[in-house]
Write a structure and sequence with these properties.
heterodimer, A: mainly alpha, 10 helices, about 50% helix, globular, B: Methylamine Dehydrogenase, Chain H, 4-stranded antiparallel β-sheet
């Protein structure tokens, strides 16, 4: 893991010590925000996300709004869509095995990729494990990263919140609800979840809504010392403004990590269903 | 003599089936009950849904092939059941069968040459329509079984009758299509309706005689091959030995004898012991056109496996594995999905394999396993749209592909009612559109262009305005001539080569 791979994490302001970081984030964010206003949505040259790997496909020519998102968010979205599709597959009388297998393989691939990245960036996390629950554990402790170009090490690229948000009341209820989601007929939550995971990427919104900090005061996040991370960070530029996405305040409590955990739990369930056939 | 009479009658029959088409969108006023005797009405359906509209288009030159629209066969009622799900020419090209989501099979017959109507030569008219599959319910699994026809395959013709296999997700049926223009009359022991007479009333000797009657096309079910597939049947293929055929579902391939319905042999089984380990399914399978021991099947991982049935009864070990190394520069979330092979076809020569995946068509040489011989981009402009196509499920569409008679041109479908042809020798390609609106009678069937940014020429269509609900999944090429059949949702288009027309006309 070279320095060029280091990613900035969005540490949601869940602790007082994080505020200093947040201030820095804020400053950088202003720049990107200004830039963002000038160039609107397409401010992010896709290369910023892609060059780090050098192997990802080009995204700049995509008119696809989803593809203007940073890589981790894209991945999160694909993951969410995968899960939704798998669930709708299961609801059919006789699901197409072909389709289910393709979706499950895509899920596995994304999961593998996330696990690798997680392991790379968190020494204390367990080694890669073959089963999903273990991967989940790894995921819980290891922040997600995305590649960043070597020439811009401090560029805000990826966002990730390492806090175990499930301990939060709101988040816990959210988690439970989400656990139920695959088995309930109500699909209303999935788009929210999707949006929720995007919502957190907009750091200024929670910086301005400082009362949100109170929510996190009780949470022991000492195990997630920001100094563990070589570069601390600022959030991604506002590709998705809060206004265009979900505005439920509770959703702001979701981090992409909690959403991810939930998704991976869902994946467990779905795989169980799949293999039972 | 009798042969001529028969021909005349058939032609008369053909004309009778032809409806006036002053307004192509209005259904025929009085659909003729097409000589359907009550006894066989269960199997012969009156042609109420299809009527014919005739277009002649000037040729568009594509290599040696110039096509004009010969037949446009729209369904007057637009319903999901009318969506055509398979198209297949028989071995001579005289007949063309289509299957639809409603479980119906419609057979078209090529009309014999007619001097008074110069353009009618080679026209395909409805020959017979029948209900092949009905919706069923599997009470054991509590599952509905769709009636949708997944595939039709013709058997090589061995006598006056034609035979075809049709399959839905679970059950394969063998159908006999035959003509009758005579019927026996004057039975001694049976009355007019076929009931036994009271024997005491039979006092004199009477020999039944064959009397001519209107030509009638009879379709009768001959065999039903059921209960052999746990998963969805995606392919059937008749062997070159003319005695056996195979049927493939997601995880298994079975070998059947055409005459035996109560047992089949499992020749491929990729079902893992633990279904948790399942990462690959069978997507298509086909027998070699000449070697009855060889067959190929494709997988959702983009690989092809050639198996030799002489090696072992269960072909778990392939003889050859055709696989292309993954290009890391094209890696994306959807690499897995778009590399899934949706169709595989042997060339007529048996030397090459044609496969279709989501974005490309590939030609493989049986003697080269490590990479395809040729790769053709069908709609590469969609590569940047994969996320949306994934979102709206189009990425799971299964496009089929076809060879021309001489294996020099390949054809496959795309979106927006476009279909693509690639000339393997000149490396030229063309995009054509199956559309009644854009193809005026006697006008040029223009090649279409999809523009991707940059300069946009007149009549170019931009990637953003492509209609992804209009997809051409099923196409077929006449076995010897340049006649193609294109299924565009619930319309069937038949295009013919103009040169071919002049040559024969």
């Amino acid at each position: 893991m070279g320095q060029r791979d280091i990613i900035s994490y969005e540490t949601s302001v869940r602790r007082k010590s994080g505020i200093r970081t947040a201030a820095k984030m804020c400053r950088l964010d202003v720049e990107s925000a200004v830039k963002g206003h000038e160039q609107h949505v397409n401010i992010i040259p896709s290369s910023r996300y892609m060059v780090g790997r050098g192997v990802k496909r080009k995204l700049s020519e995509c008119e696809d709004p989803t593809l203007d998102l940073p890589y981790p968010q894209q991945r999160q979205m694909v993951l969410d869509l995968c899960l939704n599709k798998l669930q709708s597959c299961q609801r059919r009388a006789e699901p197409s095995l072909h389709r289910s297998v393709l979706l499950a393989n895509t899920l596995r691939q994304i999961q593998r990729e996330m696990r690798q990245e997680g392991v790379l960036h968190s020494l204390e996390s367990p080694p890669p494990a073959p089963s999903l629950p273990q991967a989940l554990a790894a995921q819980r402790q290891s922040p997600e990263v995305a590649p960043t170009p070597s020439d811009r090490p401090d560029t805000p690229v990826a966002t990730f919140s390492p806090s175990p948000l499930c301990e939060d009341d709101n988040a816990v209820s959210g988690c439970i609800g989400l656990h139920k989601r695959p088995w309930s007929e109500d699909d209303g939550k999935s788009p929210d979840l999707l949006l929720g995971s995007f919502e957190i990427t907009n750091s200024t919104s929670y910086l301005t809504d400082l009362q949100l900090d109170d929510i996190f005061e009780d949470i022991d996040t000492s195990m997630y010392d920001p100094s563990d991370f070589s570069v601390l960070a600022c959030p991604s530029p506002r590709v998705n403004s809060g206004s265009s996405l979900g505005s439920d305040d509770n959703l702001k409590a979701f981090s992409s990590s909690s959403a991810l955990q939930v998704c991976l739990n869902d994946l467990d369930h779905i795989m169980e269903i799949l293999v039972r056939s | 003599n009798t042969g001529n009479e028969r021909q005349t009658e058939r032609r008369r029959g053909g004309n009778r089936r032809k409806y006036p088409s002053s307004s192509p969108l209005s259904p025929p006023s009085s659909p003729p009950y097409d000589r359907v005797p009550a006894a066989v009405r269960g199997w012969i359906f009156p042609v109420t849904r299809i009527y014919l509209h005739f277009f002649i288009l000037s040729p568009v030159h594509f290599s040696s092939i110039s096509l004009y629209l010969s037949r446009f066969l729209p369904r007057s009622i637009r319903s999901a059941a009318d969506i055509i799900s398979t198209v297949e020419f028989n071995h001579t090209g005289e007949l063309l069968a289509t299957g639809d989501k409603g479980g119906r099979v419609v057979i078209f017959q090529r009309e014999p040459e007619c001097k008074t109507e110069p353009f009618s030569q080679g026209e395909y008219n409805v020959y017979s329509t029948f209900q092949s599959h009905e919706p069923e319910f599997d009470y054991l699994k509590s599952l509905e079984i769709e009636e949708k026809i997944n595939k039709i395959r013709w058997l090589p013709q061995q006598n006056a009758a034609h035979f075809l296999l049709s399959t839905n997700d679970k059950t394969i049926k063998l159908w006999k299509v035959s003509e009758r223009d005579k019927r026996p009359e004057g039975y001694n022991l049976k009355d007019e309706e076929g009931r036994m007479k009271d024997l005491s009333t039979v006092t004199s000797l009477q020999v039944p005689v064959l009397k001519p009657m209107d030509l009638m096309v009879e379709v009768s079910p001959r065999r039903v091959f059921a209960n052999a597939h746990t998963y969805h049947v995606n392919s059937i293929s008749v062997n070159s030995d003319h005695e056996t055929y195979m049927s493939a579902d997601d995880l298994r391939i079975n070998l059947w004898h055409l005459g035996i319905t109560d047992r089949s042999f499992n020749i491929v089984d990729i079902k893992p012991v633990n279904m948790e380990d399942l990462t690959e399914v069978i997507t298509a399978a086909e027998f070699h056109p000449h070697h009855c021991n060889l067959f190929v099947y494709s997988s959702s991982k983009g690989t092809l496996r050639l198996c030799d049935m002489r090696e072992s009864a269960l072909c778990d070990k392939h003889s050859k594995l055709f696989e292309e190394p993954e290009d890391p520069s094209n890696r994306s979330f959807f690499s897995e999905i778009i590399s899934s092979v949706s169709d595989v076809k042997f060339s007529h020569s048996g030397r090459y394999l044609l496969t279709r995946d989501y974005l490309t068509a590939k030609v493989w040489d049986l003697n080269m396993e490590n990479k395809p011989l040729e790769i053709y981009q069908v709609h590469d402009y969609l590569r940047s749209k994969l996320c949306s196509l994934y979102e709206n499920d189009c990425i799971f569409d299964k496009f089929e592909c076809a060879w021309n008679g001489s294996d020099s041109v390949i054809m496959t479908g795309a979106y927006n009612n476009f279909f693509r042809m690639f000339d393997r020798n000149t490396k030229r390609d063309v995009t054509l559109e199956a559309s009644r609106e854009s193809s005026k009678p006697r006008a040029v069937l223009k090649p279409r262009r999809v523009c991707q940014g940059g300069k946009r020429r007149k009549d170019d269509i931009s990637v953003d305005s492509l209609d992804f609900t209009k997809k051409i999944l099923h196409t077929a090429w006449h076995p010897t001539e340049n006649i193609i059949a294109i299924a565009a949702t619930n319309n069937l288009y038949i295009f013919q080569d103009k040169l071919n027309q002049e040559m024969h006309g």
